Amino acid sequence: MVYGTIPGSMSQSHLPADPPGCLNLGAPDFDAYLPDRASSNAFNGVRLELKQRLLAWATEVASRLESFGIAAEISGSDESPSLLNEGRVHDQRVFFWRDAEARERLEGLLEQGRSLAAALHADAHRMHAYLGLKIDATAVEISIEVHPDAWVDFRNIRARLASADQALELTAALESLPEQYALKVTNEVACSLGGIDTNRLRDALDQAEATGAPLWIGWSVPRDVAVEHAALLEEQLEDAIVALAPVYRLIAWAPDNDCVGLDREWTLARAAKAKAHDEAEREQAAWEAKKAADDRREAERRAPRRDRGSRRTSAPPESLNEQKPEADLAPMPPPRPTLPRIGRRLVPARVVDVDPHGVVDRGVKVQVLSGAFEGKVGTVQELDGKGGARVLLGLLAVRVDVSDLGVVRESRERPTLASSHRRPSSPRQQ
After folding, report:
1. pLDDT score of 276
2. Burial 81-95 (b: 16+ CB within 10 A, else e)
3. E strand or H helix that includes residue 387
4. pLDDT, tens digit, for every residue of 206-219?
5. Do 355 and 406 touch, CB atoms closer than 8 A?
6. Partners of 192 in the beta sheet?
7. Rounded to an integer, what distance in angstroms lies between the CA atom of residue 317 and that of residue 76?
8. Lowest mean per-residue pLDDT among 119-123, 349-353, 358-362, 409-413
9. 20 to 30 A from 33, CA-CA: which of 96, 138, 317, 371?
10. Which residues contact 377 (CB under 8 A, 6 or more apart)?
11. Confidence at residue 221, expressed as pLDDT on a 0 to 100 scale
């Protein structure tokens, strides 16, 4: 499927109207993607309003991804039924993918062997590994997706798995994700990332290529859970996608993550593309010169004889040599507005009093001192006896080294979600 939003830019009417910190998913957001509403234009307004909130949220996520060396560009899927989405809006997506410079670098390789028809009807996102958020009628999910059309990234993953050290680096990064994360080939049963090995990853890649479905690594939150914990979920989704950043860095091809030595192929492809471009320009120039000469001859043939003589002796009117005043020239179209970069949320950081002599044990409240969840406060659920602890951070259970935890002194901080306590729903959620 092709998505119509231009990455990194939107029309003025589509600029996010709400400030960051307002994701606040409610039942109407999920209902807009029910099967019987997917082809209806009556819900375009609801879907557009949600899209604006998602894009505003995404700008904050992008600023955090930069700290992992990921220069991500943001784009969103279409919110209205159209030819591009085959007349049905099944879900709303936000993509974090390679920036324009990185995509241009790979363009020559990715287009090799593709017909013009395939290039015109292809979804550009499928040609690149990306991080993303998706919401439909049943759930909201955070994931990395790699479609077989992103064959550069596929080759990069396979090359990494062929090296023992590089494969271990990837499997360790996958195992360090919260236990709610899973691996699947879309529409297949998800499997846990605990104890994942290279064979399971190779099998998943083989299945994706055989079925044409993307490889999916992520976390899915059911609709009822998302609505119940809407106030907490915005921050949790942001943390969840940031937690995937180290895995994305190992999967997605980049000049500093080139496991297959594509630099030479890229250089040759770029040279071939430049040569083809030069040849096309020469052919175009030759055709235009021939057409101009033919037009002159035809004009002379059709002109009356007396006009031909006067045209040979008279100079062209002075007015033809005069340059039009600048005011008469057609104005240049205004530049397309770009999606504004919204800074991090201006909320005071949670002040936590950490006991330097505290002992990390079951039931103890702790603060994470480093990593993707740095600064988050949770409760220790269990210790593994190997220097690690299972810490509940809201809806996510994370494995963290005890050395990266600080014991929080008793305070009046809000407890983490370790019970079935339900918060009262806001009017939006009703």
Report:
1. 75
2. beebbeeebbbbbbb
3. none
4. 999 999 999 999 99
5. yes
6. 182
7. 55
8. 119-123
9. 96
10. 350, 352, 365, 366, 367, 368, 393, 408, 413, 416
11. 96
Domain end point (choices 240, 261, 282):
261
Q: Identify the domain containing residue 364 by its residue range.
A: 354-429
Mean pLDDT of 120-133: 78
Residue type, 190: A
Is there a domain that residue 142 lies in? yes
What total of structural domains would you count in the chain?
A: 2
For residue 332, the one-letter residue type is M
Q: Residue 307 and residue 296: Cα distance in Å, rounded? A: 14
Question: CA-to-CA distance for 352 and 348, rounded, in angstroms?
Answer: 12
Count of positions (residues) in the chain: 430
Q: Residue 36: its pLDDT value, please? A: 94
Q: What are phi and psi of 238, to 5 degrees?
A: -65, -45
CA–CA gap between residue 146 and residue 135 (Å, rounded): 18
Residue 20 Rama label (left phi>0; alpha psi -120 to 50; beta): beta
Q: Which of 261, 293, 315 is the last residue of a domain?
A: 261
CB 94 within 8 A of CB 132: yes
Q: What gap in Å lies between CA 226 and CA 233, rounded to an integer?
A: 7
Question: How large is the greatest C-alpha to C-alpha distance in the chain, in angstroms?
Answer: 107
Averaged pLDDT, 295-301: 83
Per-position DSSP letters for 42-84, written without gaps between them: GGHHHHHHHHHHHHHHHHHHHHHHGGGT--EEEEE--SS--TT
Nearby residues of 177 by Cβ (< 8 Å), 6 or more positions away = 193, 243, 244, 247
Closest CA to 387 of 399, 402, 398: 402
Q: Which of 19-28, 208-217, 319-328, 401-410 has the lowest mean pLDDT?
A: 319-328
Q: 161 in a domain, yes or no?
A: yes
Residue 292 lies in a domain: no
Q: How far is CA 26 from CA 23, 32, 46, 148, 425, in A?
A: 9, 11, 11, 34, 9
Spell out a b/e string for 369-390, using b for 16 or more CB atoms within 10 Å of the CB, else e.
Answer: eebbbeebbbbbeeeeeeebbb
Helix axes 151-162, 198-211, angle to 10 degrees: 160
One-letter amino acid for residue 290 of the chain: K
Q: CA-to-CA distance for 269 and 276, rounded, in angstroms?
A: 11
Phi, psi angles (nearest 5°) of residue 125: -65, -30
What pLDDT, on a 0 to 100 scale, did the predictor assign at position 144?
96
**Residue 228 is assigned to a structural domain of this protein:** yes
Question: Which residue would you say has higher pLDDT here, 60 or 341?
Answer: 60
113: phi > 0 → left, psi -120 to 50 → alpha, else beta; which?
A: left
Bridge partners of residue 222, in order along the sequence: 139
